[in-house]
Design goal:
The protein is mostly beta strands. 0% of the residues lie in helices and 42% in strands.
Length: 414
């Protein structure tokens, strides 16, 4: 309930219950709602309280055993008792931490976003350091180029708390904690005769917690925390914005056979399988922060080496716009991207007109995997990556590859 001009300001929690043994609701062979689910075949409108800042970055290092976070960017409106995630700054993405706010103040002149005091000391170092330092910054890069100059790798800090929540309820059997069977939201389309009933969704300022159902990853029945499935063009204009996905037991957000969907300015923490999966056409993934992506088969870094790994952002589809996102830790890929067509003179498209631009990644196995074939020339631009066990950028395409404004910092391979 609510809308952009009449938001919900009180605390509201919708708890969905059920177990793997609960009856499965199947509306058709291809539209399976399942159990512990919210199925949307009309209009879903949920607008929680409007917040000023969903995520930002550290302005200075926050070291182990300290309880202060100094933030960059705009002044946050975060509150005592709310929960934050602070991403890792090393190769180990599991050093991301969830903390609770004890106090908020203006901080000093070097931290315009404010100073946060947390209730317990940090368990790991979260370090801010120059993206390219010393000789590395001089290898073919101009110090006057603004893409490199003054660039730093700073851990992200994201707000996990919202006043409106959709929660997967646990029970005595441990449906969430043991069986990894959380809730799900599916926006879909069904037919009665020849008449379609298609869902749309406008979700803003909502926390989606302990959702997703482990083991259901096929596109026929994707039990993600939140998925648009088979809506074609009927859900164009739908969006999920300014929200938080916390403790996802499967992929956090997905789009399959659906067009014109926007995922914008969200915080997505802890997923199994890819955190975000995008198919369809004309979909947008803008200014999101995602951290701690575990592989489906476990948390071991190097089991069954393959290049079809889960990714924090797995971007396929046609004309998918991916800009301003931060991948803050994965035990596999940070981004897996199909690429976009080159310009007419076989160059990469840059700037705000590029489909892929101003995305960052750290603390994973591979920063960016470029796959597939886009016409005769595949284009990727505007990407910074550091602290990956293997490659900052890895390409396996049959087409020519044009890259521009790519910066790869420290890594174990290249």
């Amino acid at each position: 309930s609510g809308n952009s001009t009449s938001r919900i300001t009180s605390d509201v929690t919708i708890t969905l219950t059920g177990t793997p043994e609960s009856p499965v609701l199947a509306l058709s062979r291809t539209m399976i709602v399942g159990a512990k689910a919210l199925g949307v075949f009309g209009e879903l409108s949920m607008f929680g309280e409007q917040r000023a800042v969903m995520w930002t970055r550290l302005a200075k290092s926050a070291l182990k055993n300290t309880n202060k976070l100094f933030l960059t960017g705009s002044r946050v409106d975060w509150r005592i008792g709310e929960k934050l995630v602070v991403t890792a700054s090393s190769y180990d993405h599991t050093e991301s931490e969830v903390v609770t706010i004890a106090a908020v103040s203006n901080g000093d002149g070097t931290s315009p976003g404010g100073e946060i005091t947390i209730t317990a000391p940090l368990q790991h170092n979260h370090q801010v350091h120059p993206f390219l330092a010393g000789d590395e910054a001089k290898r073919g890069f101009s110090s006057s180029n603004p893409w490199w100059e003054n660039a730093v790798m700073a851990p992200e800090v994201g707000l996990l708390s919202r006043n409106v929540r959709i929660v997967g309820g646990d029970d005595t059997q441990g449906s969430v904690s043991v069986q990894q069977f959380g809730c799900r939201v599916i926006v879909g389309r069904i037919f009665q005769g020849r008449s379609p009933y298609a869902g749309t969704a406008q979700v803003d300022g909502v926390e989606i917690r302990s959702c997703g159902q482990s083991g259901f990853h096929s596109t026929r029945d994707p039990r993600y925390a939140f998925v648009f499935k088979g809506t074609d063009n009927n859900a164009r204009g739908s969006f999920v914005r300014n929200s938080a996905f916390n403790n996802n037991l499967n992929t956090a957000f997905g789009v399959h056979l659906s067009n014109g969907i926007t995922l914008e300015n969200n915080v997505l923490y802890r997923s199994r399988g890819s955190t975000v999966i995008i198919g369809g056409q004309d979909n947008q993934v803008l200014n999101n922060m995602a951290a701690v992506t575990f592989s489906v088969n476990g948390n071991t870094l190097r089991d069954n080496h393959a290049f079809d790994f889960p990714a924090t952002f797995h971007i396929g589809g046609v004309n998918s716009r991916v800009q301003g996102n931060a991948a803050g830790g994965s035990d596999r890929l940070s981004y897996s991207y199909v690429g976009s067509p080159c310009t007419n003179n076989m160059k990469a498209t840059t700037g705000s007109n590029a489909l892929f631009w101003d995305n960052t990644a750290h603390s994973g196995l591979i920063g960016l995997r470029i796959f597939g074939l886009v016409a005769k020339c595949t284009s990727v631009a505007g990407f910074r990556a550091t602290h990956h066990w293997e490659f900052g950028v890895f390409s396996w395409t049959a087409s020519s590859l044009a890259m521009s404004h790519i910066a790869v910092g420290v890594g174990r391979v290249g």
